[in-house]
């Protein structure tokens, strides 16, 4: 019996993991093998089978930008003349029109793998269905994968630059991560078609104010189509990177002309190919990806740079750690903002999980840094602070005690120690640390830290029935800020207790 060709062999049927959770090492290895098979099929022009394999990768790991880029590149080879699909143009065609609804229904149930699988299946028939693409972007955003969310939206805008719904969705996604300039640009494209829409005008005005308040984090490439994956065509001709062709109101030609000249992704890749043992070549491409918001790719390249350097370059290691932490923090921030906008227990649960993951990631990274720098009180402080955030109060004590060597932040350290001691019910040690924090604060300034230390000491002493100590600290606090929290009510209660004893 002859061996079936790849196009005749069905994709692996391993049960997909929950897309909202993390993949195990074994699952990632399995998925990477599927991905490598898909790339080989693409190179052999077996686009249909490659689509099925890339679909599996995208469905099971919707946070991987690399998988998504290759999925789109293969789809472009399958349908080189794909255009934006409007429902009116395809009315009556089998399978068209329900793709977006299927994706939304599965996502609404939290069945993320099924949602992305449905989207991939729909795009195989109608690759220009911007409704499906934007719905997959919304699902990626729900999971906190902001880089993939923006990639889907950029893809939809490639197909239909003036689409009102996609521009609105892109504006909200960009606002959620603080990209106010580009969010305004999306709203301006909506305004061109809806000049009398008050909601659009208010959004532009509000974002203009927020932009003035917070000018940091502008990344003009997120929805400009730059940095696409460059896949080899079977004939050997390199596929051109897909780029947005519409005019961008938020980036006039004069500003674009004034931008500094930088190496392209192709040039940076060529530098790696020319000298694969040079860690700086990988680091340069990683920096390029970081500027584009492609944090997964940047993290992968920094790992290669660190390995190429022999695992001893601490500067590269810290850059790798920072990209990893930035990705986790961004995911937590986006999830929190989305939960605040949309409400509901599902969104809140995702936000809480994303925050837990970000805090745990910080604890691990700063723990490694503290281990590398045992005599650095700042490194010990950062580690102790992160341990406290994840609820490891007992473990946080030792690094925080080591951080006392930094006299400039002694008051803050003692306050944190007091809170840790209180959590593990070492109340006398907690009182001692709170009072040390008070003593370390400048006596001429009523800082928030000094007020909080007095409050913590007074409340704890009151709970321990040490009325004299409680009255002293709470009275000192009330003399400076009588409206601080419930200090006045606590002083009244102290007076009442003294009358009855």
TrEMBL record:
Residues 1-26 are annotated as: Disordered. TPR repeats lie at residues 411-444. Keywords: Repeat, TPR repeat. It comes from Botrimarina colliarenosi. This is Tetratricopeptide repeat protein. Residues 7-18 have a biased composition (Pro residues). The keyword Transmembrane helix does not apply.
